[in-house]
From TrEMBL, chains A, B:
Domain PurM-like N-terminal, first and last residues per copy: 52-158
Alphabetical keyword list: ATP-binding, Coiled coil, Kinase, Nucleotide-binding, Selenium, Transferase
Name by which UniProt lists this protein: Selenide, water dikinase
Top-rank lineage group of the source organism: Eukaryota
Amino acid sequence: MAELQAAPLTQEALQAEALSKLLEGLQQDEDNTQDEHAHFMHMAIPRIGIGMDCSVTPLQHGGLSLVQTTDFFYPLVDDPYMMGKIACANVLSDMYAMGVTECDNMLMLLGVSTKMTEKERDIVMPLIMRGFKDSALEAGTTVTGGQTVVNPWCTIGGVASTVCQPNEYIVPDNAVVGDVLVLTKPLGTQVAVNAHQWLDQPERWNRIKLVVSEDDVRKAYQRAMDSMARLNRIAARLMHKYNAHGATDVTGFGLLGHAQNLAKHQKNEVSFVIHNLPVIAKMAAVAKACGNMFQLLQGHSAETSGGLLICLPREQAAAYCKDIEKQEGYQAWIIGIVEKGNRTARIIDKPRVIEVPAKEKDGELW
Amino acid sequence: MAELQAAPLTQEALQAEALSKLLEGLQQDEDNTQDEHAHFMHMAIPRIGIGMDCSVTPLQHGGLSLVQTTDFFYPLVDDPYMMGKIACANVLSDMYAMGVTECDNMLMLLGVSTKMTEKERDIVMPLIMRGFKDSALEAGTTVTGGQTVVNPWCTIGGVASTVCQPNEYIVPDNAVVGDVLVLTKPLGTQVAVNAHQWLDQPERWNRIKLVVSEDDVRKAYQRAMDSMARLNRIAARLMHKYNAHGATDVTGFGLLGHAQNLAKHQKNEVSFVIHNLPVIAKMAAVAKACGNMFQLLQGHSAETSGGLLICLPREQAAAYCKDIEKQEGYQAWIIGIVEKGNRTARIIDKPRVIEVPAKEKDGELW
C-alpha cells in the first residue's frame, strides 16, 4: 500500500524534447534583456541564467549572489521514503555542480495524486516528506515552506537557494585543453529502475531474462536507489580542493546531453571526448538487450540524481578520485579528456564499459 | 486553439483539505527542530517557517534574510498570456503580503499538458511564459530559470526570492486592539471564472440566468482577470508608509481562511471581525443562486491572486485606501476591525456586500 506508482516511461523523452524547445524561446529573451554581468567594486560578478544548473543573481548587498535551482519530477522508485530522499538529493545536486556546498534554504513542491485513496495519501505523502526533510538535514539545511497541490500524477520536487560570495561557487566555463573528465556516480539508474518494474511484467521480462537474473536486477535497483539518494556534497567540496574548472550534474538529458551542454558554455575552444562508461553492474547488458530503447551506451539514457561530471586538471584528477573514495567509500572515475575543439562533446566509437558492482561502501554485498 | 482548458472545480476543495492535513505534519516537525530566532549583533532575527506566506531564513551575512515563496496551480482563465501574468502576480503576492517590495529573482515552474497537441503546446506555452515574464518585468525582477515537465494537467507557477534587511519586511504578527482590516481587491474571482465557463454549459447557465445577464458575466470575468493580474506591489509599499501591523494575501482558503490564519499568528490577544464584503458586481447574487457551492459570503470561496488583507492603525487606514486609489485607480476597503480576543477571525451574521463595479481604472466601463 505504501508503494508509489511510477509514471509512464515515455514522459522522459517527451520532456527532453518539449523542454529544449521551450527553453530556447526563454533563452533568446534572456539574451536580449539582461546584462551578462553586474559589478561590485569594479569586479564583474557573473549573472547566470537559463541553461546551466543554477541561476546566479548578483544582489545589491556587498558582492553577494543568490544561487538558486528548482527541480520536480515523478516517482520512479516504489519506496516513498527513498523517493523523498532522491528528490531532495536531485534538487541539491544542481547547487553542488556549481561547487556550492552550503544550502541556506529549501522549499518542497508536492503533487498529491488524485488516484490515491485517502488512506494511501496519508501514509505515502508523509513518508515522501520525511525522506525529503531527512536528506535536507543530512545536507545541513532545512525545508521552510513549499506548495502542495492535487494532481493526476504524484509529483515531488523542490527549490534550493543559497546566498554566497563569488569564491563559494565555481562558474562552469573554465575547462582547458589537457583537463580530464571525472564522473562521481555510475550510469544506468533509469535502466535499473525499469528492469526492476519489469520483474512483474512477464512479456517485458522475457526480453531481458537471457542477460540478467532476478537477483542481479534487485541488486542493481538497490544500488541505483542508494546512488540516487547520495548527496553530491562531498564531490562539490573536493572540487574546490582540487581546483576544478567546472562541472555539471548528469540527469534527464543523459551523460552526453549534459556533457554537450557543459562544453557549449566553455570560454576556451575545447571539446570533451568520453572513453569510459561506468555502469551499474549488468545494466549495460540489459540496455543492449532492449535495442534502441535506452541509448545508454550512446550517452542518452536519462539519469536521476546522477553524479557530477567534472573538468579537473590532469594532475589533480587521480587525487580527487582517491579522496572521494576515502571519504565516502564510493568510487569516482576518469572517463574522458578535454581537447582542442569547438565546444562539443562526444563518446568514442567503442567506449570501455566499467561494470560497477552493486556493493555498499562497507564492502557488504546486497 | 490558443485556449486553455481549466481544471476541474473540485480540486480547490480537495487541495485545501489535503494541504491542511499535510502541512500540520510538517509544521510539527518544524516546531521540534528549529530555533525560532537567529541572532545578529544581539538582535533577534525571526525565522518564519511553514504556515505564513513566505519563509524567512536568517543568513550568515550581516543581518540579511532570505525571503522566499513558491506557488503553482492550474489554468483558470482561457487566455494563456493573462494566465501567465496571473500566475506571476500570484507568486509575488506572498512576498508583497510581507511588505517586501523588491524581488531579487524568480524561477518559473511549468507543466505542459499531455493532452495538448504539439501545435497547441507551441502556441500556448510560449504565451504563458511571455505573460509570466512580462509580469515579472513589471515587478522589477527577472525570471532566471525554472523547470518544465510534462503533466496530465497544464501547470503554472514559480518561485520568488529576495535577500533583505529586517526593515524591508513586516512580520505579520503585530495587530493590536483598535486596528482596522483593509482589503485591497474585491472578492469573487472564482465565482466569476466559473460563471464565465457556464456560458457554454446550458444546464449550468440555467441555474444562474435569473440573477445575471451574459453581459454581466463577461464584465465580471474581465474584471476578475484584471484584478488577478494586478500586482500587490503598491499595496505592499504603502504598508510601510502607513505603519501596517501585518498582512496576508487572500488566495485558496478564501477571505475567512486567510484571516483566521493571520489571527492565529498574532502576538497579542486579538480577534478579527469582518463586517463588509467587497465583491465583483453581481457575483454575490450568482454565488447565492448556487446554494452552498461557493460559500462566498461565508468567506470560504477560493480566490486566485487576491488582495492583501492588512491590519492598519485605525487613523491610518482611510489614508492608506485613498493613497492606493490615487496611485493605481483601484479602490481598497475597510472591511473589519481588530478587537480583544483569542486569535480567531469571523464574519458577522449579515455582512454588508459592497458591489464593486466592473470598471477599469480610467473610468471606462467594460
